[in-house]
Design a protein that fits this description.
The structure holds 2 protein chains of 2 kinds. Chain A is an alpha/beta fold. Chain A has 9 helices and 10 strands. In chain A, a hairpin with a 2-residue loop joins strand 1 and strand 2.
């Protein structure tokens, strides 16, 4: 699938209206394989909507989304997922009444080809169980193997959400505010975790913490009022007067004051 | 190594459980030897398959169906027609295989009608299943050729040559056929919960949106599970057709669907074995309890209300919670509270039941005179003091019950906190 002449993810003049209001107003974006992109922008700029359009949760009003060169707009979320794009959610989205292990196992079954099988026992699926255990280790939840997901702490649930997102081995990962609601120290630890588990994958993440953004991303896309006004390396974005004017200003100064 | 030991003990436990289940099925008719006993046991087997198949939808898939009797019922009709075809020599099939015809019919109709119902989840799903139920019942009145009109369709299971002396003439032979089907169906439905589809069905119940983002089509998961549930429902219907040798339109009626829902819930939808308890209660209520009192549906409604309010997990969750308390050696502390609850509850029940029975007598059989026998006492349904007495007993019972309930709730909370602490020592610093 990975060819050098196509982008991992490409958005072409993507638009989305809710009623008469146009929320996404012609977004163009091309993300290379293995690139880590942070999407920043003020509240209501359309960052989450953009993720919902890419992942198939909403249909676009016009324009195209290409995953590894394949047009995916109009496809259902599960079809897009099978093509190798996986996402997490801003509001924790897990299987509350299943154990942590079962949550992770559910996330790997399709990618290992088990589909809707009811002639095999889960206990005998050695590859699925090994993969779920591996994920369990990756997100540091080994001790919570049998705990129901609903009984985890908030930070643990966020970690589980990441585990479910990467479970199917997708090459393009979308994380919608993965550190929302976490304390400073939790955020630092969590970003390290994200870096580690998305090694070698194409990553798009919506993030508010500027320190995190500049530490994590190869490139930053600045979304304001449904348009990408800048898409460049962190340094170039920081220096971009248009960005400073529109949005960054004080936030960049804060980040620099903290030593970035 | 420890994990190896663990799995082997689990396996032994599982063999023992299934062995006991088979033993109970085999020995039950030797214990309850009367004709009524055998009737009740046969119906229990049939109901167990029906309720477990219903719980595939409700408990495991989060699908609140109001029309499950469509699949048990149509299975029963197809089975009785197949039986008649065997009688007339048109169909070369052993009688023992008739329930399978019911199963295939239930599966076929589930594939047909479920294609529409399982498109949607939640309230919409519930509404559509209800509509399907009404539709099929209306059809049963419109097509008497198939549904047999008011008299239903009857058949005769004693046909063909006896195989090893099995003619299915004596009810005991039918019971053992039902028992074998029940055992196999329960094993298969339990096995289903351990398969990829079974687990994804739980995931769809918990969070359908997330399922779409791990590669699964939720509609397809629901649809496939619905068809499988339809198969087992049809088996149950087919066994019913063999057992009663008559199938009437009421088998597809909404009341039957409602009974599956109610008793599956009472038994406990969150545990696999819950619906088995529910099915046993269902047969006891319909066959035995309905003989005791005309007001049995009213009592049933009260019990249902009570369970929804105080124990939404049904009897199965009550059992499991108390087993957990017992495992931590705390059950003895609760004895006095349970006794208090039982006694005060009984007092309130006696008061309420006296009033209910007097009301029913006044409304339905006042021509037989004003007196009724209630728990060995003669009550005059027109005498004011009897009514006041019953009301007083009810009121006193209720007040005492509430006091006992509060005390119990306090103790229960303490014990649960204690257990939580023991289970997660590092969390409770």
């Amino acid at each position: 699938m990975t060819t050098t002449d196509t982008f991992a993810l490409e958005l072409k003049d993507l638009r989305k209206s809710f009623g008469k209001t146009e929320i996404i107003r012609g977004v163009n974006l091309a993300v290379k394989h293995g690139e880590r992109v942070a999407i920043i922008g003020p509240n209501g700029a359309g960052k989450s909507t953009l993720f919902n359009l890419i992942s198939g949760r909403f249909g676009a009003s016009s324009g195209d989304v290409l995953l590894n060169g394949t047009v995916i707009n109009g496809m259902k979320p599960f079809e897009i997922n099978r093509l190798g794009l996986s996402r997490s959610f801003q509001i924790t989205n897990i299987f509350p009444k299943l154990s942590v292990f079962e949550n992770l196992r559910c996330s790997v079954l399709w990618s290992l080809g088990y589909k809707y099988s009811f002639f095999k026992f889960l206990a005998n699926l050695h590859d699925a169980n090994a993969r779920a255990n591996e994920l369990l280790k990756m997100v540091n939840l080994e001790k919570k193997h049998d705990v129901l997901a609903v009984n985890l702490t908030y930070a643990e649930q966020r970690a589980l959400e990441i585990g479910i997102t990467i479970g199917g081995g997708a090459n393009v990962i979308l994380l919608d505010e993965p550190t929302a609601g976490m304390s400073k120290s939790e955020t630092t630890r969590f970003i390290a975790l994200i870096k580690q588990v998305t090694e070698g994958k194409t990553l798009l993440t919506v993030e508010h913490d500027m320190g995190v953004v500049f530490g994590l991303a190869d490139k930053i896309a600045v979304v304001v009022y449904g348009e990408v006004i800048a898409f460049d390396t962190p340094d170039a974005v920081r220096a971009n007067p248009k960005v400073q004017e529109a949005y960054l200003g004080s936030a960049v100064a804060d980040a620099q004051a903290e030593g970035h | 190594m420890t994990s190896n030991n663990k799995t082997s003990t689990i396996n032994v436990g599982r063999w023992v459980t299934w062995g006991l289940f088979a033993l109970v099925l085999a020995v039950a008719p030797l214990v309850f030897t009367s004709g009524l006993g055998l009737t009740v046991l046969s119906q229990m087997g049939i109901a167990i398959i029906a309720c477990l198949s219903y719980n595939m939808l409700l408990g495991q898939g989060g699908m609140l169906s109001f029309g499950h009797a469509v699949y048990t019922g149509l299975g029963a009709f197809l089975a009785i027609h197949a039986l008649n075809a065997v009688s007339s020599g048109a169909l070369p099939l052993p009688v023992s295989a008739i329930p399978l015809v019911g199963g295939l019919a239930g599966m076929g109709f589930a594939a047909l009608l479920g294609y529409v119902t399982t498109r949607k989840a939640g309230t919409t799903f519930a509404m559509i299943t209800m509509g399907m139920g009404e539709l099929v019942f209306a059809m049963s009145l419109m097509i008497p050729e198939f549904f047999g009109g008011e008299g239903g369709v009857s058949g005769n299971r004693v046909i063909g040559k006896a195989f090893l002396g099995i003619t299915y003439g004596p009810p005991i032979q039918v019971y053992y056929l039902i028992a074998v089907y029940t055992f196999i169906a329960v094993v298969l439905m339990f096995a289903f919960t351990r398969t990829p589809l079974g687990r994804m069905l739980n995931a769809v119940r918990d969070n359908p949106e997330r399922v779409e983002f791990v590669g699964y089509n939720t509609q397809r998961v629901r649809y496939t599970a619905f068809i499988i549930a339809g198969f087992f429902a049809g088996i149950s219907g087919g066994l019913g057709a063999l057992n009663f040798e008559i199938v009437t339109a009421e088998v597809v009626h909404a009341a039957r669907s409602g009974a599956y829902l109610l008793f599956t819930f009472l038994g406990g939808a969150t545990f696999f074995f819950g619906p088995i308890i529910g099915a046993i209660l269902m047969v006891l209520a319909f066959v035995l309890f309905s003989e005791f009192t005309k007001a049995w549906l009213l009592y049933l409604g009260l019990i249902f209300l009570f369970m929804v309010m105080y124990a939404p997990g049904g009897f199965a969750s009550l059992i499991m919670m108390n087993l957990r308390v017992a495992a931590f050696g705390k059950l003895r502390q609760l004895w006095s509270s349970y006794l208090a609850l039982a006694v005060t509850g009984l007092v309130a029940l006696v008061g309420a039941a006296a009033m209910v029975e007097m009301t029913y007598h006044l409304q339905l059989s006042s021509s037989e005179g004003p007196d009724i026998q209630f728990m060995g006492v003669t009550l005059n349904t027109t005498g004011l003091n009897n009514w006041l007495g019953a009301a007083a007993i009810l009121a006193v019972g209720l007040v005492l019950f509430e006091i006992a309930r509060r005390r119990f709730a306090r103790e229960w909370e303490e014990i649960q906190a204690f257990i939580e602490k023991k289970m997660n020592p590092e969390d409770a610093q």
